[in-house]
Amino acid sequence: MASALEDPVLERYFKGHKAAITSVDFSPSGKQLATASWDTFLMLWNCKPQARAFRFVGHKDVVTSVQFSPHGNLLASASRDRTVRLWIPDKRGKSSEFKAHTAPVRSVDFSADGQFLATASEDKSIKVWNMYRQRFLYSLYRHTHWVRCAKFSPDGRLIVSCSEDKTIKIWDTTNKQCVNNFSDSVGFANFVDFNPNGTCIASAGSDHTVKIWDIRVNKLLQHYQVHSGGVNCVSFHPSGHYLITASSDGTLKILDLLEGRLIYTLQGHTGPVFTVSFSKGGELFSSGGTDAQVLLWRTNFDDLNCKDMIKRNLKRLHFDASPHLADIYPRTPHPHEGKIETIETTDTTTVRTLADKSEEISGYFLNPSLLSSECSPTSLKKKTEDMSDLPSESQRSIPLALTDALEHIMEQLNVLTQTVSILEQRLTLTEDKLKDCLENQQRLFNVIQHKS
Questions:
Q1: Which helix or strand (DSSP H or E) is residue 400 part of?
Q2: Which of 278, 320, 412, 438 has the most CB atoms at less than 10 Å from its CB?
Q3: Interior angle at CA 225, CA 345 and CA 164, nearest 5
Q4: Residue 310: is its pLDDT beyond 60?
Q5: What is the pLDDT of residue 404?
Q6: What are 233-279's pLDDT values in tens digits?
Q7: DSSP 387
Q8: Closest to 401 in 3D by CA, of 224, 229, 236
Q9: Average pLDDT in the 61-66 region?
Q10: pLDDT score for 368
């Protein structure tokens, strides 16, 4: 079992998509990885070395979200083509299409028992589908702008959603009512999800923040401002102890939630990172973004038994306990206090730098296949964890929210252009008809004059 002080390592990367990666998800067994992309395709990768990948063709526009069902026998995807598809994850990749949304669909999420699917759309609604009968059940309407994400709670009794109306809403799946509402005056959440025991939600903010809310006492527990760009996605470790974040600043960051600290900054991507996800057991995680690469990482830093950790969390998060001050103000030294971790990767190498007490850095270039090499030591001044390795201006890209806004404006301009074109055609027809009427009137006038 890995030591608690071991660092995450880039195991391998997958190249096959022709455009940005929007979503990644591991199969329940952890042996396969599904990815969605702006290139309109889904891809299914085997995590074993040199295994074949399958490309699934069917969507007619950007694929925005992908997820395995809890049993691994289905794959759901959402697209800007306004449809949701269910795929059989094998080499044939057969799919069925669901149509109910009237605008691009942004996310898909299975309930833990696999009976239901929640979809979020730019038509301002969340829709819930029955998976056994494969039919639409009901819609949830209260958001006043595009809904970006909707997720079931672990017990399936609640749904959390986030929207560009700057609210996060909690819904009761029994009475289909909105039972809670968190609002933000600064930005909106790009992504939300429940922690593994369902007591808290994490939101990824367009305003560069990550927030943890306790839904039982309706309190903001933690507020992290560690990114220099919009946060696009978060993923809880199955233990609930760690949260990994993906940002438009090009980095992944790993937060220790029990200590309330940033412990790792991972720089494997060459542009904005849109998606990240832990495997179901937490031993791996994967990420993707505008560089069209899918990176597969080995977690390494958590050697605690997940079941023990969940029991401990349940004990800590009991109703009788006061809001979790230990989450916000750490009272004990952090196991990573002695060093600041930054892991940088290129296509073929992982660069690991550790800042020790003497403020000297020894760099190790770790090839994902060989994991061995040498590097001469250099010195570097320590940085604070919250500001570690922020990208330079040249590395930063356009925030996802701005990209979406520009795309929305372009869509509206296209609609206006089409409308003007239709109006011009109608005006031409009207002019032709008016000309015919005038000519007929002139003929009648000439006939009447001739007779008189």
A1: helix 400-451
A2: 278
A3: 100
A4: no
A5: 67
A6: 999 999 999 999 999 999 999 999 999 999 999 998 999 999 999 99
A7: G
A8: 229
A9: 97
A10: 31
Please name the helix (run of DSSP H) or strand (run of DSSP E) that holds residue 410, with its range, or none: helix 400-451
Tell the burial category of 83 from Cβ atoms under 10 Å away from its Cβ (0-12, 13-18, 19+): buried
CA 270-276-280 angle, 5° bins: 145
Rounded CA-CA distance 349/366 in Å is 6
Q: pLDDT band for 303, please (50, 70, 90 cuts).
A: low
Return the structure tokens found at 146.
Answer: 């595009």
Mean pLDDT of 102-107: 96
Mean pLDDT of the chain: 79
* Residue type (1 letter), 430: T
CA 328 from centroid of its chain's CA atoms: 25
314-329 in b/e burial notation, b at 16+ Cβ within 10 A? Answer: eeebeeeeeebeebee
Helix (H, G, I), strand (E, B) or coil at 210: strand
The answer to whether the beta carbons of residues 268 and 290 sit under 8 Å apart is no
φ, ψ dihedrals at 291, nearest 5°: -80, 0
Q: Lay out the sheet containing 189-194: strands in order across.
A: 189-194, 200-205, 210-214, 219-224
Burial label, 362 (beta-carbon count in 10 A; 0-12, 13-18, 19+): middle
Query: In this structure, what token pair is assigned to residue 283?
Result: 């031993």
Contact indicator for 119, 129 with CB cutoff of 8 Å:
yes
Joined tokens for residue 195: 């922690």
Half-sphere exposure of 175 (CA within 13 A, CB side): 4
Position 132 pLDDT exceeds 80 = yes
Query: Three-state DSSP class for 380?
Result: coil
Calculate the CA dihedral of residues 352, 355, 356, 359 and round it to 10 degrees. 140
Token readout for 179 is 């039972």
Residues 42 and 382: their CA atoms lie apart, in Å, by 42
Q: What is the mean pLDDT of residues 434-443?
A: 86
330-366 pLDDT, tens digit per residue, is: 333 444 443 333 333 333 333 333 233 222 222 222 2
Give CA–CA dist 91/401, Å, rounded: 35
Residue for token pair 């949304």: 101
